[in-house]
UniProtKB/TrEMBL annotation:
EC number: 4.2.1.1
Keyword Nucleotide-binding: no
Principal EC category: lyase
Family under the similarity heading: Belongs to the beta-class carbonic anhydrase family.
Positions of Zn(2+) binding: 39, 41, 98, 101
Keywords annotated in UniProt: Lyase, Metal-binding, Zinc
Catalytic activity: hydrogencarbonate + H(+) = CO2 + H2O
Transmembrane segments: none
Metal-binding listed as a keyword: yes
GO terms, biological process: carbon utilization
A GO molecular-function annotation: carbonate dehydratase activity
Protein name: Carbonic anhydrase
UniProt-listed InterPro entries: Carbonic_anhydrase, Carbonic_anhydrase_CS, Carbonic_anhydrase_sf
Biological classification of the source: Bacteria, Pseudomonadati, Pseudomonadota, Alphaproteobacteria, Iodidimonadales
Length: 148
């Protein structure tokens, strides 16, 4: 936690003052170019990957960068998509996967997730994609299927 608190302090003392004009502009509203849906994996940094600045991306992160089916119940991903399109008029949606995704490993072997019932249920939304990958090339290695 010391690193996190130190980072916040550095942001307040150094980064914010150097970018104060940008942050004042963003305080009045946002008009991001794209909705960027990606994994919650700590190794994935959307702004670093895309070399964007605050205000450029509307970001939604979850385990496995999954977009669940639309249902009447509210959900964080569907609410984010609805707001991005309806309120922010975002025209572009990027779904960004990454190498060695633990969520996708779990999706390919949901039986191994008995101790994680919520993760298991969440990854069930990717069942159709896993089925397609498995049927497309029955001779593919586990790594090839994971990358697909």
């Amino acid at each position: 936690m010391d690193k996190i608190f130190s980072g916040i302090s550095k942001f307040q003392k150094s980064v914010y003052p150097k970018n104060e004009e940008l942050f004042h502009k963003l305080a009045g509203g946002q008009s991001p170019e794209a909705l960027f849906i990606t994994c919650a994996d700590s190794r994935v940094d959307p702004m670093m990957i895309t070399q964007t600045e605050p205000g450029d991306l509307f970001i939604c992160r979850n385990a496995g960068n999954i977009i669940p089916p639309h249902v009447p119940d509210a959900g964080g991903v569907t609410a984010t998509i609805e707001y991005a399109i309806g309120a922010l008029n975002i025209e572009h949606i990027v779904v960004c996967g990454h190498t060695d995704c633990g969520a996708m490993k779990g999706a390919m072997d949901r039986d191994s997730l008995a101790d994680f019932p919520h993760v298991r249920a969440w990854l069930g939304f990717s069942e159709a994609a896993v089925k397609i990958v498995n049927e497309r090339d029955t001779n593919a290695s586990e790594e090839e299927r994971l990358n697909a």
